[in-house]
Specification:
By secondary structure, the protein is mainly alpha-helical. About 60% of the residues lie in helices and about 0% in strands. The protein has six helices and no strands.
Length: about 140
């Protein structure tokens, strides 16, 4: 049985970046292209910092390629592509046109209910405080 991989094989960086630029990047395709079992590929990416960096760089290239294609569609008048770009890049959606989702919130804090006798004392005190003693009502 072959010894388990501890890092990506030589040439993996160039190979993964080329796959990303051509839109063929996935864990299973990358593992197959590098001659590694998928479980070992995933373990190497998780455990080896240099391999993880190579994989993340390849994913960044793929993301840039996809965003470029989406931009071209949006620039050509594709409404859905433009909507997707606004949502992904700027957090705007049709449901939240303001973007931040931080709309206005108003809170009312009401005092606890008074028992009827306490309420009457409050009303009577307020009437006495009026200049004419509350007689105009």
């Amino acid at each position: 049985m072959a010894r388990p991989y501890t890092s990506l094989p030589a040439g993996a960086k160039n190979h993964l970046e080329a796959m990303a630029a051509n839109g063929m990047l996935s864990e299973s395709k990358a593992a197959t292209a590098l001659g590694m079992p998928i479980d070992q590929f995933k373990r190497v990416i998780a455990d080896d910092a240099a391999s993880k960096q190579i994989w993340e760089n390849a994913l960044s290239i793929e993301k840039d390629e996809l965003l470029g294609k989406l931009w071209s569609l949006a620039d050509g008048g594709d409404r859905q592509a433009a909507t997707t770009l606004l949502a992904v890049r700027h957090g705007l959606t049709e449901k939240q046109p303001t973007g931040g989702g931080g709309g206005v919130t108003v809170n009312f804090t009401l005092p606890a209910a008074l028992d009827p006798s306490e309420y009457m004392k409050t009303v009577q005190s307020a009437q006495k405080a009026l200049p004419d003693g509350g007689a105009n009502e």
